[in-house]
Amino acid sequence: MLYPDHIIEELRSRADLVSIVSQYVVLKKRGSYWMGLCPFHQEKTPSFAVNPNKGYKCFGCGEGGDVFSFVMKIEGVSFSEALKRVAESCGFVLPEIQKKTSKAKEGDLALKKEVIKLNWLALEFWENFLLSEAEAKPAREYLLKRGISEETWRKFRIGYAPNRWDALLSYVKRKKISDKLIERSGLFSVGESSSLGKKIYDKFRGRIIFPIFDIEGQVVAFGGRTIENVEPKYLNSPETPAYVKGNHLYGLFQNKDEIRRQKTAILVEGYLDLISLYQAGEKIAVASLGTSLTEEQSKLLVKFARKVIVNYDGDSAGIKAAKRAIQVLLSRGLEVKILTLPDGLDPDDFIRNYGSEEYKQIRQKKARSYLEFLTKEVLNKESLSEATEDVILIARSIRSEIEKRDFFDQAMFFLGFDSIHRADLWAKVKSNLKPWEIRQSIQEQIKRKLTLAEEKLLSLLYNVEEVRDYIFSIIEESDYKHLLSAPIFEAFLALHKEGREFSMENVLSLVPQDGIVSDILGIIFMSESFDKVEDSDNVDNYIDEAESYLLKIRDLAIEKMMNENNRELIVAERNGDKERLEELFRKHLELAKKRAKIRAYLSASN
């Protein structure tokens, strides 16, 4: 532990959990709790509860813990880094940690070697048990049923832990291993002391064992998978003198030579994903062991690979982990591709269902750029502010200035930001603003992005039937399709066409539930201009106002079309395409005439 327990407890008591969580989740007070949508899984009804004194808990996915575990989970950082970030958030000064003496370091190294030595004893015991004992027959049948051959068991040194409380303990006791080492190894659970002494028993029982090797081939930890219907499905070693979570990649030791030869790695989540890929001939896989990729793991990857194909599970947790991996890998200068398998399958399930050849084909043909993945799987399902923040943080992580700017421009164009707003947001990429400061400024940027004409026109359309009758008879799709509020215009048009009531409930039922317009809806519905129109004798004035707002929006749309046309003109001229040049020039003249007519009308009416 980097800091004494009393320092950690003092920091925990002084940290403002609600304030920290609020940087990522919109919370509302409910009695002694604060409630919001869980940041760790997708949900529509808030089930994420924060108690300032006790911690957080999601009643949907089960995630819970204290302020440190929240920061570790949400940011994908180590415990020590979480301590620093929490301390910074509340102005707590962590004490300087005295450097260990050379003698203390020697002691740590000696203990690490002893733990590794004990790990080898455990590996040999479990491996031999799987290969030769009758009690391990169900485990052997399970592995063979999943298509994992005995040759692969031996390659990855897979074993089986007997379903007994003291199988390994009795074995290591016979080897004269000290109680102190047994307790520090992470292989055993230690119960409360009694008159009979401490209760020590095997941590791994009735599980297939997957040894985790460091880059040098030393066994530093283990993962265990149950073959029965019990929870947890997977059980992993705790941190020990030999093992720090997030510092190792499963399978890297076995596959590093082939990864170096191909300069490519496939990043997956779990043990069985990697083993299935190995048997399928894809001997370039590594597994991040069910966690978001860490900085330390990326440091290992960059030693062997130039390109990484991220093939996490296709569920919401896997997509979120892939988003995090993109940022970490790009910061190392690696080329990043994303592979999402059909039907949300993980690599192990896909290969067992469709075979190794089909996987190879889909990997070669369907691995996408991270930009395509983000626009199709992530950004369009997030709120505008969250999506914008993601783009800024990912752009920051890209080393190449050309690639950085290209990604930023394309992603922001996808989100609907014009060149003026993109310039403001680009400044945040180049700034040293912290994530919460970026988040705050993005909200202001989104508010500025909505024109007054949009707000006013939508207010009048929502509230005045006669305005709807007139405006919907003259509006064109090109007027609003470039706006972030386009889905709201479409919802209004649908309600009007179907003769349905204009209510919040009906509007919300027609707006796509992809998160991209949620911020816009909030701004429009909560704005002062959205107040109920009361003066029913002023309908003609409302229609005139609405037409004026529509023309202002149409003027902006034409300006965008002219800018796009000008870009195409430059390309056509560069390519010497005379026919295309004439076509684009005619279009330019038509747009210019329309814009002049609109501006003359607006000028005369003012």
Major β-sheet annotation: 5 strands, antiparallel
The assigned CATH architecture of the largest domain is Orthogonal Bundle
Helix content: 55-70%
Unreliably modeled segments: none
Mean pLDDT: 87
Structural class estimated from helices and strands: alpha+beta
Strand content: 5-15%
Descriptive overview:
- Helix 19 packs antiparallel against helix 20 (435-449).
- 56% of the residues lie in helices and 10% in strands.
- The mean pLDDT is 87.
- The chain starts with a helix and ends with a helix.
- The strands form 4 sheets. It has a 5-stranded antiparallel sheet. It has a 5-stranded mixed sheet with strand order 13-12-14-15-16, with helices on both faces. A 4-stranded antiparallel sheet has the order 6-9-10-11, covered by helices on one side.
- The longest helix is centred in the last third of the chain and has 37 residues, at 539-575.
- The protein contains 28 helices and 16 strands.
- It has 5 domains: 5-90, Zinc finger, CHC2-typedomain (DNA Primase, Chain A), CATH 3.90.580.10; 102-236, DNA primase DNAg catalytic core, N-terminal domain (Alpha-Beta Complex), CATH 3.90.980; 252-377, Dna Topoisomerase Vi A Subunit, Chain: A, domain 2 (3-Layer(aba) Sandwich), CATH 3.40.1360; 382-449; 452-605, DNAb Helicase, Chain A (Orthogonal Bundle), CATH 1.10.860.
- With 606 residues, the chain is an alpha+beta fold.
